[in-house]
């Protein structure tokens, strides 16, 4: 009888722990401990590192930090599909790069076109319509497009451990922002549903828009001109302009996030947290870092060893990658 009581109590304790664990998809390794310890220190009244709630700002990169970015950025996959849809209206694309490369499926030539070629694709496929029309195009595409490896909608290929982390931070008085090199209006239609991050807390690259009256209706029309690139050194600039507070926690996965993590963590007291997601799991997702064309993690990985940023090894530190 006594043994049964002890076993029952032990089982109850395990169950209670599982229910109280705010990060159940994380293994009990160093990164999880570092995150929980940080949150406890900055939220505990009387702690020397206590941070008032309005100052609890956490910023997250999107591609490769919150959802998949291989074999290519999701927004690039969207742009390639847009080229194919729009091609009948542009017969000249059959002989003009980088559009010809897209239509021929020549990814090597497309990659060789570099940032200039990819930017041209984005400008042509994302402009020439109102912001409302673009939102519908994005929403419709996401509802039907499937990732080539996992055969699932892209919005299902978000990292479950990071979704839990977003919720955990918000439950502890943090305001969570997405700060991405991706297009801000590509992300805003779905981030609240998928991540719990409302559109006004999404920062990203943008093209210029122009106010127009269209059939007596006020609209914003998207122009094929760059407005702001929210990547690398642009991230701290965007954070300062749009948020107006220096974050106390930043999460990224690539060299494109280096300056954001520096801006966040190299500011002295109070406590600061920098986290890099390292893609190490080729079975459950992908393994890449220093030589990758998408999401290269090289300089930032070296910086982590010097600055003390937490590096999350996806294979070792996460129980699962995606939601079942």
UniProtKB/TrEMBL annotation:
<keyword id="KW-0479">Metal-binding</keyword>
<dbReference type="InterPro" id="IPR050582">
    <property type="entry name" value="HAD-like_SerB"/>
</dbReference>
<dbReference type="InterPro" id="IPR036412">
    <property type="entry name" value="HAD-like_sf"/>
</dbReference>
<keyword id="KW-0378">Hydrolase</keyword>
<dbReference type="GO" id="GO:0046872">
    <property type="term" value="F:metal ion binding"/>
</dbReference>
<keyword id="KW-0460">Magnesium</keyword>
<keyword id="KW-0732">Signal</keyword>
<protein>
    <submittedName>
        <fullName>Haloacid dehalogenase</fullName>
    </submittedName>
</protein>
<dbReference type="Pfam" id="PF12710">
    <property type="entry name" value="HAD"/>
</dbReference>
<dbReference type="GO" id="GO:0016787">
    <property type="term" value="F:hydrolase activity"/>
</dbReference>
<dbReference type="InterPro" id="IPR023214">
    <property type="entry name" value="HAD_sf"/>
</dbReference>
<feature type="signal peptide">
    <location>
        <begin position="1"/>
        <end position="18"/>
    </location>
</feature>
């Amino acid at each position: 009888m006594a043994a049964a009581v002890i076993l029952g109590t032990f089982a109850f304790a395990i169950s209670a722990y599982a229910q109280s664990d705010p990060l159940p998809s994380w293994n009990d390794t160093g990164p999880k401990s570092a995150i929980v310890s940080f949150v406890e220190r900055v939220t505990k009244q009387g702690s020397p590192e206590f941070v008032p709630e309005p100052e609890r700002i956490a910023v997250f990169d999107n591609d490769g930090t919150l959802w998949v970015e291989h074999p290519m950025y999701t927004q690039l996959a969207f742009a390639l599909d847009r080229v194919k849809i729009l091609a009948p209206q542009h017969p000249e694309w059959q002989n003009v790069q980088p559009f010809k490369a897209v239509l021929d499926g020549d990814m090597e030539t497309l990659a060789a076109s570099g940032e200039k070629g990819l930017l041209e694709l984005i400008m042509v496929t994302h402009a020439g319509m109102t912001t409302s029309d673009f939102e519908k195009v994005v929403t419709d595409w996401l509802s039907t497009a499937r990732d080539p490896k996992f055969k699932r909608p892209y919005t299902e290929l978000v990292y479950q451990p990071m979704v839990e982390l977003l919720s955990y931070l918000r439950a502890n008085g943090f305001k969570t922002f997405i700060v991405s090199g991706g297009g801000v209006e590509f992300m805003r239609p779905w981030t609240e549903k998928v991540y719990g991050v409302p559109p006004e807390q999404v920062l990203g690259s943008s093209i210029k828009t122009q106010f127009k009256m269209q059939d007596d209706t006020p609209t914003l029309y998207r122009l094929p001109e760059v407005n702001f690139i929210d990547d690398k050194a642009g991230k701290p600039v965007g954070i300062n302009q749009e948020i107006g507070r220096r974050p106390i926690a930043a999460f990224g996965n690539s060299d494109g996030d280096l300056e954001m993590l520096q801006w966040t963590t190299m500011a002295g007291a109070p406590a600061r947290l920098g986290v890099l997601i390292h893609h190490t799991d080729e079975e459950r997702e992908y393994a890449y870092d220093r030589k990758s064309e998408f999401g290269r993690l090289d300089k930032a990985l070296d910086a982590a060893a010097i600055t003390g940023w937490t590096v999350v090894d996806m294979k070792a530190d996460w129980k699962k990658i995606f939601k079942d």
